[in-house]
Structures are given as C-alpha cells and as structure tokens.
Amino acid sequence: MTAPADTLELIRYGQDEFPAIRPTLVSLYAEVYTDQLANPFFSVERFEQRLEGYASRPGWEAIVAYDGGEAAGYAFASTLPEGSAWWAGMLEPLPQEEAAEDGRRTLALFELMVRRPWRGTGLARRVHEELLAGRPEERVTLLVELSHPKVKALYESWGYHNVGDQQPFADAPIYATMMRPLKAV
Ligand SMILES: CC(C)(COP(=O)(O)OP(=O)(O)OC[C@H]1O[C@@H](n2cnc3c(N)ncnc32)[C@H](O)[C@@H]1OP(=O)(O)O)[C@@H](O)C(=O)NCCC(=O)NCCS
C-alpha cells in the first residue's frame, strides 16, 4: 500500500508551538499505545510528564504528518545537552569518547509513531527523514524495546546499529540503544 503523496503534509514545529500541538501528540500516543497504557511506565500521565521534559530541552522539534488535515503520525527529537543522562542507563557503559556530549553532537529521537492506517506506507520513514533534514548534529540516537525485534530491524534498514542495551528509568523496559550518522544511510 502506498499513501497518496498529494494528500500528505509534513509540518515542522519548534518549542514555541509545543502548547498548540501538545493535544495532538498526546492523543496519538493514547491511540497508538492503547494496549500498553495499563503499564504505569506507558500510561498517558507518564508520557505527558516525559513529553514536558523533552519539549523543554534546547533544540526540541517535532514533525507531524497530516493526511487530508488529519494527524497520521509524528516524531520529535532534541539535542543531547552537555553531560546528558542519555548514556547513564547503559547496562555496559560506552567508552568515554562515545558517550561524551558537548551539547551539539547528538540528536536524540524520543518518539516516532504512525497510526495503524498509515503503517507500512513509508510515512514513518518520511517523518523520520524530514525530522533529521537540516539538523546540525553529527549523529542520531533512539531507543527501541528489545521485545520489538521487527522495529529494531526496521531501524537497522534505515542505517542504525545497536550500541548496547539500556534501561532509561527504573520501571522502563530494556531498550536497544540505536545510533547512526545523521546524514548517512
Ligand atoms: C514503528 C513504526 C513508526 C514503523 O512504521 P512503518 O515504517 O510503517 O513500519 P510497520 O508499522 O510496518 O512496522 C514494521 C514491523 O514492525 C512491527 N511493529 C511495529 N510496531 C510494533 C510494536 N510496537 N510492537 C511490535 N511490533 C511492532 C510491525 O508489525 C511490522 O512487522 P511486519 O513487517 O511483520 O508486519 C510504527 O510501526 C509504529 O508507530 N509503531 C507503534 C509505535 C512504536 O513502536 N514506535 C517505535 C518506538 S521505538
């Protein structure tokens, strides 16, 4: 299935627009993660707390895809700050030179999701590439649940590789930490 390109619109939002798009981000999360909402870590309330934190970070941007005006999916990311805790949850610590953040080096992609009717259409990849386009960082990192090997394989097909597993919060699942050069593939 191929999404009709002419009805799709990808819009970039910055921190100033966060209050306006926040309800869309939360509502799509609640729909996409509906089967996991009973798990406290994946509850809407906890997602909203994480979202507030991410959206307050320097360089936060989101891409929201609209199909005929209806939100179909999104991704958001921000630059890892100097001394970021992103690498603190690694089960095997990375070499210092890999984990050193200077506030410019690494883009962290915190969420990427597409509603079911738009899965398998290439929209997720378009949203991902649009978010990365024009970013100044050298590399991009994201987390994928170890229990979702197909999603991990999808990211590998987009040029990511696993640099080690991590548990970012005490009640979070174990995630594979994926990385790729920002401009490559
Ligand atoms: C991840 C995502 C954006 C990829 O979209 P896509 O490029 O259109 O790819 P698909 O949806 O076809 O997913 C690729 C494969 O992963 C599987 N998959 C996707 N999300 C999954 C999930 N949350 N749990 C388990 N498997 C999942 C799909 O079933 C598919 O497998 P198949 O090829 O056997 O059908 C989309 O699947 C999604 O929004 N998933 C739910 C949210 C999510 O898991 N986000 C990623 C967080 S790292």
The number of strands is 7
Task: Calculate Rg over CA atoms.
Answer: 16 Å
Number of helices: 5
CATH homologous superfamily grouping: Gcn5-related N-acetyltransferase (GNAT)
Would you kindly provide a written description of the structure presented here, covering whatever features stand out?
The protein has 5 helices and 7 strands, in the order βααββαβαβαββ. It is α+β, with helices and mostly antiparallel strands. The chain has a single domain, classed as Aminopeptidase (3-Layer(aba) Sandwich), CATH 3.40.630. It is globular, with a radius of gyration of 16 Å. 27% of the residues lie in helices and 29% in strands. It has helices spanning 18-32, 44-55, 96-99, 123-132, 149-157, and strands at residues 8-14, 61-67, 70-79, 106-114, 139-145, 161-166, 175-181.
Describe the secondary-structure layout:
Layout: E1 8-14, H1 18-32, H2 44-55, E2 61-67, E3 70-79, H3 96-99, E4 106-114, H4 123-132, E5 139-145, H5 149-157, E6 161-166, E7 175-181
Parallel strand pairs: 4-5
Antiparallel strand pairs: 1-2, 2-3, 3-4, 5-7, 6-7
Helix pairs in contact: 1-2
Coenzyme A (COA) binds at residues 32, 112-114, 119-120, 124-125, 144, 148, 150-151, 154.
